[in-house]
Amino acid sequence: MVTGAGGMLAQDVLARLAAEGIAAVAATRAEVDITDPASVRAGLAAHRPAVVVNCAAWTAVDDAESREDEALRINGDGPRHLAEACAQDGTVLLQVSTDYVFAGDADKPYAEDAPTGPRGAYGRTKLAGEQAVLNTLPETGYVVRTAWLYGAGGGNFVRTMIKLEGVRDTLDVVDDQQGQPTWTADLADRLVRLGQGALAGTAPAGVYHGTSGGETTWYGFTRAIFEQLGADPDRVRPTTSAAFVRPAPRPAYSVLGHARWAAAGIEPIRDWREALTEAFPAVLAAERG
């Protein structure tokens, strides 16, 4: 079962499951409302999935600063309701989380067991969801942190830059935030493989980091997007976070380490540049309709 089935990541998870010939329930909010324990119990009872992949989330980072209670109901209480229902039947739960659970002030990649310390409401709510899953399901709960997601199935940074390239002579893009652009199809593949490993008993429960290899800044990422478009990357100009003040603080450094995948016998996600090259035709086609 994939919750939040209408979202960008969920669409790719469902596509990957279909490609593998694995039966799946695409659970939209109408099917399973994770903020409602009764809805969660009814959904799981009706379909009895072996694995639940929770892609339902509050992702509006800035809005969470003024609406933390609402975000917590989805990002914190929702995973708890799922975990409690999964615990009754021994169901595996894969919870998608975020780099925002860290403070973002490191100088080397965050290990899976690095101390958390979210600086904003969004990170706090997602950390609450992580803790609920890991505490409730010590043997069958998985947390997969990701970051900088893009894909063909929804609004995201790559699609925005494609649009802006066509209407602006130059773009000023932040060059003091370091991270890992991650294609949703690559993450979907790892989620499916992790679920398979969980059922086979070859993937230990706990925290994994589902981001691409390598690292860059939003400025470097945009230059790479322009290159894919055949546009002059020098039209992209570096600037600082101070030029784009937002309600929620952005992590200056949110590069994640990937050592834990070895314990599951699964390769970490490839380098972000290689992924962007493969993903770009589909993302471009989705944006240009």
TrEMBL record:
Ranges in coiled-coil conformation: none
Molecular function GO labels: dTDP-4-dehydrorhamnose reductase activity
Enzyme class: oxidoreductase
Keyword Nucleotide-binding: no
Xref: InterPro entries: dTDP_dehydrorham_reduct, NAD(P)-bd_dom_sf, RmlD-like-bd
Domain (RmlD-like substrate binding) ranges: 1-280
Keywords tagged on the record: NADP, Oxidoreductase
EC code(s) of this entry: 1.1.1.133
Cellular component GO terms, alphabetical: cytosol
GO annotation (BP), single: dTDP-rhamnose biosynthetic process
Family matches, as Gene3D superfamilies: NAD(P)-binding Rossmann-like Domain, UDP-galactose 4-epimerase, domain 1
Pathway where it operates: Carbohydrate biosynthesis; dTDP-L-rhamnose biosynthesis
Entry similarity comment: Belongs to the dTDP-4-dehydrorhamnose reductase family.
Role, per record: Catalyzes the reduction of dTDP-6-deoxy-L-lyxo-4-hexulose to yield dTDP-L-rhamnose.
Protein name per the record: dTDP-4-dehydrorhamnose reductase
Organism whose genome encodes this protein: Streptomyces tuirus
